[in-house]
Specification:
single chain; 527 residues; Rossmann fold; 3-stranded parallel sheet; 3-stranded antiparallel sheet; 23 helices
C-alpha cells in the first residue's frame, strides 16, 4: 500500500517519482509496471558517473514505491553492439584489439582473455560493479535485444518513418556529415564491421536498406531487423525508449540536446519519451570538467579507499543539479553529512524521515548509528596522536565511550580505518605548525588554566570554556580564535569542534598539548 506520509515528502527523489506516477496514471501502456532505465557504453570500465546515475535512479524508484503500488523494474542497458572506435589506453593486448576496430564490442576478442568478447568482459565488470553496491536491476544487452528480435518492431517503425527521422537529425549535423548520415548502421557480412554508410535506397515493405559496401564497392541489400543493423546512438536511444516503453531515465547536462533530439524521434515512432532529470556534471580540483581520458577526477575505487560507500551515495544525493567538485578533499564532509543525517533519523517524525538523505541511501531502512564520532574528529585525533594503527584511536574512543569496541561497533571500526588512511595520505603530508602570537599565547595559557580547573568535563561544557576564553581575549570573530588553535595545536587551518575533540582526546592530554606548543617543546603528543 502507498505510504500516506510520502504525499508531502519534498526530497528531490519524491519530486521525480511524482512525475513518473502522473505519467503512469495518464498512460495507456499495458505493460503493468513502471520502467526505469540507465544506459552504459561498455567500451570502457564502470566509473563514478555510472555509480551516480544508477544510485540516483534507484532513489527515485524507491520513492515511487512509497507513492504507488504499481510494480517497478530497473534496466541497466549496455550498448554492447556499438563498434569499437579506438583502442582504450587501459587494456592489455592493444595490438590485437587494433585488428578488430569498428566491429561490435561483442564480436571483439577479450584482451583480458577471461570472456568470449570484450563486450562480455566489460558487461561482467558492470554487473559486478552494480552487484557490489547491492543495486536491484535487470541487465539488458543491446546485442541480445537486436539479435533476438526484441527490437524488430521498433526498427521497422524507424524504417517506415525514415524520412521524418532524417528531417529531424540532418539539421543538427555538419554539411559533410549530412551527406553520409544514415540512422541505420549495417553490419558488414564480409568483415563484421559496423558500417557508417549512407542508404542508397530504403525499402520499408521489404524491411531492408540498400547500401554500398566500402570494402568491395558492391551494392548490398540487408534487413534492418534480426541484428543485421544497429542504429546510430541518438536514434538508438529513441528506439529503445519506444521499444521498451521506458518511463524514466536521467542524463547529464552534456546530453540536453541529445535528449531533445531523441525525444522528437521517439514521438515520430509513435512513442512517448520517458520522464527525465538532468543532473550536473562533476568538476575536478581546479573547477574544470572531469574527463575519463585526462584522468583528472576521482574514481569509485579511490573514494572507497578513504570512506564508506554510503558517503559516496550521500555525495550523489546532495544537490544533483549543482556542479560539484569531485576530489579527495570533499570526502570528509560527505562522510560527516551522512553520519549527521543518520544520527538524526531516529528522532524524526515519520513524514520527516522521508526527506532524510539516509532514508534514500539505505532504501528506506537506515541502520542505527554507532557513537557520535565524526570523521573530522577522528582525523584530528589521528593527527594529534600521529596515529598509525586502529588501536591508538580505539584507546581514546574506549575511554570516552567504554561501551563501544571494534566488535560491538563494526561501522565505527571501519570509519576509524578510513580516517587513518585519509590522515596518512592527505593530512599528515600537509601539516604545518606555527608559533602563536603574543595575544594567542596569552589566550591559550588561559585556556589551559581553565581546562585544569574544570569540574564538568563534558564536551558541551568544554566547548563553552573555549568560547569563553576567546571572548575574554577580544576575539570578535571566534572563527579567528578557533583557527589559531587549529594552526598552533594541530598544524592545519581547519579542524573539529574543540569541545568534542578535547573530551575525546582528554583534558589532561590537551593541557599538555597546549603547554608543549607554548614552550615550543614539541608540536604533537604521543599517547
Amino acid at each position: 500500500m502507498p505510504n500516506a506520509n510520502a504525499e508531502n515528502a519534498r526530497a528531490w527523489p519524491f519530486q521525480e517519482a511524482r512525475k513518473v506516477l502522473k505519467r503512469m496514471e495518464q498512460s495507456r501502456s499495458e505493460k503493468g509496471y513502471a520502467l526505469f532505465e540507465t544506459g552504459y557504453g561498455p567500451s570502457g570500465l564502470p566509473h563514478i558517473g555510472t555509480f551516480g546515475e544508477v544510485a540516483r535512479t534507484s532513489m527515485v524508484r524507491r520513492a515511487f514505491a512509497e507513492l504507488s503500488d504499481i510494480p517497478t523494474r530497473l534496466f541497466a542497458f549496455s550498448d554492447d553492439m556499438d563498434g569499437l572506435r579506438k583502442v582504450p589506453d587501459n587494456v592489455p593486448n592493444k595490438e590485437m584489439l587494433s585488428k578488430h576496430l569498428n566491429k561490435p564490442l561483442t564480436q571483439v576478442p577479450d584482451p583480458f582473455g577471461t570472456h568470449d568478447s570484450f563486450g562480455a568482459h566489460n558487461n561482467a565488470r558492470l554487473r559486478a560493479f552494480l552487484d557490489e553496491f547491492g543495486f536491484e536491476y535487470e541487465f539488458k544487452s543491446s546485442t541480445e535485444c537486436y539479435k533476438s528480435g526484441e527490437f524488430d518492431q521498433a526498427l521497422m517503425a524507424m524504417l517506415r518513418q525514415f524520412d521524418k527521422v532524417m528531417k529531424v537529425i540532418l539539421p543538427t549535423l555538419g554539411q559533410e556529415r549530412r551527406e553520409t548520415y544514415c540512422p541505420f548502421l549495417p553490419i558488414s557480412e564480409e568483415t563484421g564491421e559496423v558500417l557508417q554508410v549512407p542508404a542508397k535506397e530504403v525499402r520499408p515493405d521489404a524491411g531492408t536498406i540498400v547500401y554500398v559496401d566500402p570494402n568491395n564497392g558492391k551494392l548490398v541489400e540487408t534487413p534492418v531487423t534480426g541484428g543485421h543493423c544497429k542504429l546510430q546512438w541518438k536514434a538508438d536511444w529513441a528506439m529503445r525508449w519506444f521499444a521498451l516503453d521506458v518511463d524514466y531515465e536521467m542524463s547529464g547536462k552534456d546530453l540536453i540536446e541529445s535528449v531533445k533530439l531523441s525525444s522528437s524521434i521517439c514521438r515520430i515512432l509513435g512513442g512517448k519519451p520517458p520522464e527525465g532529470f538532468t543532473y550536473e556534471l562533476f568538476l575536478d580540483n581546479e573547477g574544470g570538467k572531469i574527463s575519463k581520458s585526462k584522468g583528472n577526477g576521482l574514481s569509485v575505487e579511490e573514494w572507497l579507499a578513504y570512506a564508506p560507500p554510503e558517503s559516496l551515495s550521500m555525495f550523489m544525493f546532495q544537490k544533483p543539479t549543482a556542479a560539484k567538485r569531485l576530489y579527495f578533499d570533499v570526502i570528509p564532509r560527505a562522510v560527516d553529512e551522512y553520519r549527521q543525517h543518520l544520527a538524526g533519523y531516529g528522532n524524526q517524525e515519520p513524514e520527516k524521515q522521508l526527506d532524510n538523505p539516509s532514508w534514500h541511501i539505505h532504501g528506506g531502512n537506515p541502520p542505527a548509528t554507532e557513537g557520535d564520532f565524526s570523521f573530522s574528529l577522528l582525523l584530528n585525533l589521528a593527527a594529534v596522536c600521529n596515529a598509525e594503527d586502529k588501536a591508538t584511536l580505539w584507546g581514546f574512543i574506549g575511554r570516552y565511550s567504554p561501551e563501544l569496541t571494534p566488535e560491538t561497533a563494526p561501522m565505527l571500526d571501519r570509519l576509524v580505518g578510513y580516517a587513518l588512511a585519509y590522515y596518512r595520505d592527505f593530512v599528515k603530508p600537509e601539516k604545518a605548525y606555527r608559533a602563536p602570537s603574543a595575544a594567542e599565547r596569552a589566550a591559550m595559557a588561559d585556556l589551559s588554566d581553565r581546562l585544569a580547573s574544570a569540574d564538568d568535563r563534558s564536551a558541551e561544557m568544554l566547548q563553552n570554556a573555549v568560547y569563553h576564553v576567546g571572548k575574554t581575549h577580544g576575539y570578535e570573530n571566534l572563527r579567528e580564535w578557533f583557527q589559531a588553535l587549529y594552526e598552533v595545536l594541530l598544524g592545519q587551518s581547519s579542524g573539529p569542534r574543540m569541545g568534542s575533540f578535547i573530551a575525546l582526546y582528554g583534558v589532561d592530554e590537551t593541557i599538555a598539548l597546549i603547554k608543549n606548543a607554548l614552550a615550543n617543546e614539541g608540536l604533537s603528543v604521543q599517547e
